Amino acid sequence: MFQVRIHGRGGQGVVTAAEMLSVAAFDEGRHAQAFPSFGSERTGAPVVAFCRIADREIRLREPIMAPDALIIQDPTLLHQVDCFAGLKKDGYILINTSKTFDELGLGEFLRDWPPERLCTVPATELALKHLGRPVPNMPLLGGFAAVTGVIRLESVIKAIEERFSGKVAAGNVAAAREAYAIVKAEMEEALHHA
Amino acid sequence: MSYQPIKFYQTGTFTVGNRLLPPEQRSVQAQQKRYNSLNSGHRACQGCGEALGARYAIDAAMEATNGRLICANATGCLEVFSTPYPETSWQVPWIHSLFGNTAAVATGIAAALKVKMQKGERRHIRVVAQGGDGGTTDIGFGCLSGMFERNDDVLFICYDNGGYMNTGIQRSSATPPAARTATTPAVGETPGNVFGQGKFVPAIALAHDIPYVATATVADLRDLEAKVRRAMELSGARYLHILVPCPLGWGFASHETIKMARLAKETGLFPVFEAEHGEITAVLPIRHPLPVEEYLKPQKRFAHLFAPRLRTDVLTRLQALADRNIQRYGLLEKP
Amino acid sequence: MLKQIEGSRAVAEAVALCRPEVICAYPISPQTHIVEALGEMVKAGTLAPCEFINVESEFAAMSVAIGASAAGARSYTATASQGLLFMAEAVFNAAGLGLPIVMTVANRAIGAPINIWNDHSDALALRDAGWIQLFAENNQEALDLHIQAFRLGEELSLPVMVCMDGFILTHAFERVDMPTQEQVDAYLPPYEPRQVLDPAEPVSIGAMVGPEAFMEVRYLAHAKQMEALKLIPAYAAEFKAIFGRDSGGLTHTYRCEDAETIVVAMGSVLGTIKDVVDEMRETGHKIGVLGITLFRPFPLEAVRAGLKGAKRVVVLEKSMAVGLGGILSTNVRMALSGLHMHGYTVIAGLGGRAITKQSLTKLFLEAEQDALEHVTFLDLDWAIVNKQLEREKAHRRSGPVAENLLRDIGVVAARNY
Amino acid sequence: MMDKPFAITLDPGSSLANRTGSWRTFRPVYVDRLPPCNAACPAGENIQGWLFHAESGEYEAAWRTLVEHNPLPAIMGRVCYHPCEGACNRQHLDAAVGINAVERFLGDEAIRRGWRFSSDAPPSGKRVLVIGSGPAGLSCAYHLRRLGHAVTIDEAAAQAGGMMRYGIPKYRLPRDILDAEIARLIDFGIELRLNRKVSDVLAAKAEGFDAVFLGVGAHIAKRAYIPAGDANKVLDAVSVLHGMEEAGPPLLGRRVVVYGGGNTALDVARTARRLGAEEAIIVYRRTREKMPAHDFEVEEALQEGITFKWLSTIKEAGEEDILIEKMALDEKGFPQPTGEFERIPADSVVLALGQEADLSLLQNVPGLSIEQGLVKVDATMMTGHAGIFAGGDMVGNERTVTVAVGHGKKAARAIDAWLKGESYVPAAKHELATFERLNTWYYSDAPKTVRPVLDIIRRQSTFDEVLGGLDEGNALFEARRCLSCGNCFECDNCYGVCPDNAVIKLGPGQRFRFNYDYCKGCGICAAECPCGAIKMVPEEI
To answer: So what's the ipTM on this one?
Structure first.
């Protein structure tokens, strides 16, 4: 079972991202379970959502406490929330930013991490470019497909096309594709240097 | 009469404070050591109109009662964002019981205080009940009406954001016509909330002939404070209905909260007035008249009126509502 | 002072002696006479200072009481049946907030069909609302329990429901020993709230509590109720010292010494049962009675101790758990866990159906023979029931049950089906 | 203490433990933006700064803030063409703030109350020579004195003031006002030497001065060739206006024609009327719209009975009349002769065609260069010769008192730096406070105060001041019309409108501070700041 925790802010589509991730896995014929953490926090407050992916029925209902991967939709959270709590050793980290891990001040913290598992993608910029709105969640799923390989980019695209239509779908698909490419390139670069 | 003619002091009495005014004429909110009855750290959305309105109103009530105040609060956004265990943002004695019983809880508090005062156990303390439009105009309406007709010594404040925002933006009887909510979606032939439904509780409060009824918005602080002050000068049942825009539920940027309230008032869609013993005594006139589109267009809940095609038919009906308010309350007359 | 007065009046006078500060009233039979009497005392100035508030619903009645109690006032209201259900949300809330409101429930059936007569369905529907629930056997006890209820509730910061059988007690003129004001004052100190709305010490009451603490809050409520199990006998003893009589407590046994059969019941029916037991004892039947005064918290240990020696237990109750059987009996069975004895549930007196000595005698004799079903409906008219069942089998649109039955027994003019 | 139930009952205000600052992706910051009035002021006055004090009736504080940049407020309040008002954001609401009128009120108030200059700079031991006591020279001398330098002004004329005295008519600038403001400068410790025409600047500097500022003005009238009969009087504006300050006023006759379209032409025509001319006619070769003179001056002149011949050039001046040729504008807007002629009667013709500087004292100054009659200066007002600075009419074609005062100030600061062996770098300017940045809802509606204007009969016959001043009530009202564009004026809006109480009010004069522990970054404060003094910036990642 592969467990993902997504960090973002109320109003940034964190829950949607988890749901769409589960749909992408479902589209691959796998089992998936997406769920929010429900609290009294409002627009702007740090929030999390979860997704489990497995090849057999998922019966587990406990919160995800030791994720295999983290998606961080808003890098300002890094200074405000313990985003890395419980992350499995050598787990995947995908951050929406145009900066590097070093520039984010995480270089030392993640020094022993496999570099190809640490990726950043300027998802907000990509969303603005392709969609005209700063909603980073779909390009991040593209990046997630690239960095983890747990789901295929095609599945993410299929999930987007099932959920959205017209320009919104096209924009999200384009953004997800570009994010995928960016992350793939980053990983190769990392492996090359390693 | 709470409407004060604007004195010419640069920003007059439009701004929160004004260094050019004598201290006694400045607003409660301008005081360096104001009450902050609703403290920092609450979990309201960015730009929450209700959080603002509640602090405005309760601070003003605290000022008017010299800090001798108890609040009862209905279930709703205000309650949830202000008092999730283990923290409360309230600095006043405050109780939350249920969604629909706030007016009655306040009645009970007022009754208790009356007895305690007769016994000499406590000094004079006043009671404010507060809730959102759901807790006031819908589920709490029975208790509210009961409190009104008994003329219990309670000021009830409704923070009207036009829907059940706490539960995810559903329609209430205060949701304006044509507005999209989760239960009046923008689909079908007549998208959004239905025309000819809903109620304007201030008018119903008026019909109870209670000592004081007023409306206000978070855009006119001085007016709001003057109304709270006036309400606290009177005894018996009093009602203050404050329009508090909701960035999330209405779909506008978090910095536009006050602007939305201002536009609601300036277009005439939300009449600002006050009444004593069933008679309207003053209105806050429209300063710069505007068509309703100015108010509707920035809000996503009305987006279906502008795209994919311009719904002139619906806009005309909404303009008619504004025009009727302007006519009925004399909103264009100079004071 | 001995008086021959109506039960409602006796309760009203007792409540008045407790110096309530806020009373909320909404009319519903059969509690109405109580608040009417109190209203008159407030209006006349004999009960002062006190606010008597005519509210617009039972929901408001409980809510006003919540507000008043939170502001530090001794608060009282009374209701019954539909009224209790209409205020249900506020009933739970008062307990959750720990407000020591005292409420009389003049027990009455719940509709539909609407029925104004006595049974215990109303109070037992709210048995898990977090209130302490006391059941009075007679008007003297009803009166006494109100005085104890204020003492108990205020000590624990918990609301207390004093249940008395509607009409059977509320409307019965009986002899009661009305205490003096001095006695009540000696027993019941002024209300000293544990928490109060006060500008001098502002607090927020009624926070939203999430998963991280909700269980603990619930456990603490439970622990507080458990504390009542210890306090109630102590307060009853203290009551006896001042007022000179046994009243209240957890349970009362009657002729249980060597009893093989013990009948368990609550409320006014205990008197009838005791009469039957006396008669049966005279003919050598080893039968006794366990009366339950305190239903919540449920006195598991006292009940177990009271029933331990018996061979069989007959729980006779004026309530039912549709689809299961009894409510009281389910609770009693929990007290008997591990003990091997026969247990019978008898549903009796629903909606004001008279419970007669004759029926009870027959019932108990059958019980002694272990000839009872697990669940028995006392004096059920099987002919009517079967007729309706056949009717329903025959016709999809067989008509409203209650009206059909009334027609069958001739109350309503018959119509062919 | 109450025995509070666990979790259900909470201690007041305890939500301070919840630092909602973590929700923020944008943070508000207080900024000061450059108000358009300040940006437009050639003298670099901090207009909004002194209006701020005037708004609260603190007139002396207002005046002291004003004179940090300009030592001549009573003069400026009369003769400045107030570009500040042209830039004022309030014009988009109702009408520009009457800045000029308030300035004059403050200047007059200072004279009336005898407020004096002060400086706490220690004496520098340096001596600076200022040549010319016009606005540039006086301003430069004043600022140098403020900075602790010893200053001597050499003035060629018998009285100080330069063009303010010899170019601006009394009805616009009463001489008691001029004298009072000059006297205050002298009183400040500036040495003034009259009747000293400097003919060689290097020689003058060598008399113990460390630096020199040139502010000799432009006193030589430009001439145009007009064939004229002997009997006809053709004069120039400079000498006519100069002559007004001497014993006998110039004789112009009954019918006076003034040739030119600038403010000087109007000054001459209006002076002629006051001297008794029955007719004063301005001949200008283009249209009114193209006239360089200020519109309000044209208006005032029209009220006083001055007539205009637009699109006309003077071809010749005869004994009792002049010949003018009609012009027509071509498609590019240039006047072209039409061949149509007209004669109009005239006893005298005054040429108001501009002035040039007398630069004879600058011969043989190494490095100093002159182009098209103007002394070349760098960005710090220094000429090509180190230590010699220049300003006012002699360095530019924008020849107003205000520009000159600005030059004087800038030069003084540069001289100060130069004397210390440093180079003068003006402080970086704030971003402009444009109208779009304001939230004008908050400003009261208030039209401009109309200043009293002298009765028309007296205007045609006397040299009494035309435009009156404001009384205190009016001045206060006018000051309070200021929108305080781009700079916090402590209206408390940000403090009030924050739904998270995340603005800390620091007290009168101390403004506010954001409490970033709780600020969620909603931006209401910035949106509702009337004057645009809050900026939302992305949170650092």
So the answer is: 0.90
